[in-house]
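Technical annex B. To support the medicinal chemistry partners, we prepared a structural model of the target in complex with FE2/S2 (inorganic) cluster, based solely on the information shown next.
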Amino acid sequence: MTSYVVALEKDVRDYSIVRSMMGDKPLVIWRGASGAINVWLDRCPHRFVRLSAGRNMGGYLEGVYHGWQFEESGKVMLVPAMQGRPAHDISATVYSTAVAGGFVWASEEECSPSGSAGEPCYPVHIAAPVDQVRLHVDSSVDHLTPWGVDGSMVYPTGDPAQRRAELSAIRRRLEES
Ligand code: FES
C-alpha cells in the first residue's frame, strides 16, 4: 500500500481549490465545510471536464460546465438540468486521504502516511525533476514521485533522521548546481 504526499496542508484553504498529481493522475484537492480535506480525481463524471475548473462552495464542489454539485462524499447532490434533483448513483472518483506532518496524503487504497517499517515517514522535497533526482537516490530503496512542474518528493526508508540528513545533502547539491 503506497500513500503519497499530494499537497501541503497549509495550502488547502477554505473556498479554494488546489491542483496536484498522484503519479499520472490529476487531482483536485479541496477543503469542505466539515473541515475535512477531499482528494479526488480531477475529472467530472459528467463530461470529463476538470473539476478544478469549478468552484469550492464550502458545502459542495460545483462543476464549471453544467453546474453539477458534488457533496464531500463525492456523490452528486444536485443536477440543475434535472430540476435540482440529486444523482446519488453518480460520484466523483474519491481517494483515501489523511493529514499528517503538515502534509496531505492520498492513496488509491487505504491511506497510511507511514514508511515501510510503519514509522512516520516525512518526505523530502527537492526542487529538481524526478529524472535528475533518480541519478542520486536509489529508487529501489526510496520512493520518488513528481511534485509540481519541476520538483520531486522523496519518501525515505530506513533510519528517519539519518536518511533525511543524507537526502538534505543531495537536495543542496542538486538545488545549488
Ligand atoms: S461536465 Fe461537469 S457538470 Fe457537466
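Notes passed to the chemistry partners:
The chain has two domains: 4-91, 115-176.
The chain is about 10% helix and 35% strand.
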